[in-house]
Amino acid sequence: MRRFLWLLVVGLLFSPRAAVRAADLPQQAEAALARGVTFFHQQVAAHGGYVYLYSADLTKQEGEGRTTREQAWVQPPGTPAVGEALLQAYLRTGSQEALIAAKDAAECLLQGQYRSGGWNASVEFEPAERAKHAYRVDRPLPKKRQRNTSSLDDDKTQSALRFLMQLDRALQFQEARIHDATLFALDSLLAAQFPNGAWAQVWEAPADLTRPDSLKASYPQDWPRKYPGGDYWLFYTFNDNNISQTVDTLRLADEIYGGDRYRAAIDKAGQFILDAQMPEPQPAWAQQYNFEMHPVWARKFEPPAISGSESQRLIETLLDLYVASGKRPFLEAVPPALAYLRRSQLPDGRLARFYELQTNKPLYMNTQYELTYSDSDLPTHYGFQVGSSLDRLQKRYDSVSRLSAADLEKLRQPRSPSPPRASTLEARVREIIAAQDDRGAWVEDGPLKYHGKGDPTRRVISSQTFA
């Protein structure tokens, strides 16, 4: 009986009917994509924008906290991430609804762009809340203090810009409002760059051009073991890979708009990465530096320290910069950083998020937010230990370092990404189509994070999954 069933399955797989089903798969995929776009655009979107998670019945929603239908989220995987997915759907299929949905997402972002040029975590549409913000499209309220803080934290402004730039290109730069807002944001981002090539976490005005432009990172003589408070967000920061994401964004701007300004800003940022590399015995990077180029506190759980997380991403950025420019200093900074991180690995192969300055002891916080060398009582909201990408980074360094000038030039030419293997792709596509419900939604198991322990939600719709 078992043999008979196996032969039956094989016969079905290789029957003409099965071949027809395989041939129909692209049409099925396009139809599922169209249903998904229609559902997200017509039922999930509010003011053209999106948040992170929705209950399956769409009665509850949240970003980094509970949200209402009068709020959209910028920080990924919010509106820019969904907008970019909608744009890709249009570019792949020509779907006009996908294009309209992408343009609606862009309009949502235009409604949330600050007069300082960038974006923050969310966009407010409820009139009383909206009046608290200095949105560029709204008239100023002179007697009211309005928030005008553009942020690079957690890829906020960068993600909005990457989506808008790609949409601007897809529209052949003919939609004046989108084009103008995008260039205004890029101009503001360039103006927020310090003379040494760094950016702070946020800006409200152009950077202070009187700051020094060539200081090298060094160890402070001493640093406070207790959190001192202060406006850490005004200092030079790599925290959460802000500058790496900004460099990626400017590389896309250079590709789409050209001109020398974006390349010059990228080169300055690269020089800052080199200048911020700490000397021996820890030739890697801190999260945050003051204007004297000493590592300093950021939030109450982010002490002055060498970062095992941000340092790995900066190695990746240095390799990208070397491939893009051929400038040897970007390449030469990598081996000492890799060697240092390799000898700093924890017994399980991971890296500590923080290593104490000069002693290189893994540094942690306990649940009372006190510095400690023990990892036995860690807060759960933050990654105090991170995965190691050192093998992959070493492999990439070895490959890149062997390239000739001609090889590097070839790598700089625009290339289409290699398609995945058909067999792997087909199985995944069938899985995705089967998971779509009658509305066009992809619903998955999971709770809402910010609706309280008693919230009964167990099935959610995720913007990240949709994208």
N-to-C span? 44 Å
How much of the residues is beta strand, in percent?
5-15%
User: Which consecutive residue ranges, at least 5 long each, have pLDDT under 50?
Assistant: 1-20
Mean pLDDT value: 93
Widest β-sheet, arrangement of strands: 3-2-1-17-16
Shape: globular
Helix content: 40-55%
Instruction: State the secondary-structure class.
Output: alpha+beta
Total beta-strand segments: 17
Largest sheet: 5 strands, antiparallel
Radius of gyration: 24 Å
Treating each run of at least 4 consecutive H or I residues as one helix, how many helices?
17
Describe the structure.
- This protein has 467 residues and is α+β, with helices and mostly antiparallel strands.
- It is 44% helix and 9% strand.
- The chain is built from 17 helices and 17 strands.
- It has helices spanning 2-13, 16-23, 25-44, 79-93, 96-111, 127-130, 156-170, 176-191, 242-257, 260-276, 310-325, 328-332, 334-343, 390-401, 405-411, 422-435, 463-466; strands spanning 53-55, 61-63, 65-66, 71-73, 122-124, 150-151, 202-203, 236-237, 288-289, 306-307, 351-352, 354-355, 364-365, 371-372, 385-386, 443-445, 459-462.
- It has a five-stranded antiparallel β-sheet with strand order 3-2-1-17-16. A two-stranded antiparallel ribbon has the order 4-5. Strands 6-7 form a two-stranded antiparallel sheet.
- A hairpin with a 5-residue loop joins strand 1 and strand 2 (61-63).
- Helix 3 packs across helix 16 (422-435), helix 7 packs parallel to helix 9 and helix 9 (242-257) runs antiparallel to helix 10.
- The protein is globular, with a radius of gyration of 24 Å.
- The chain starts with a helix and ends with a helix.
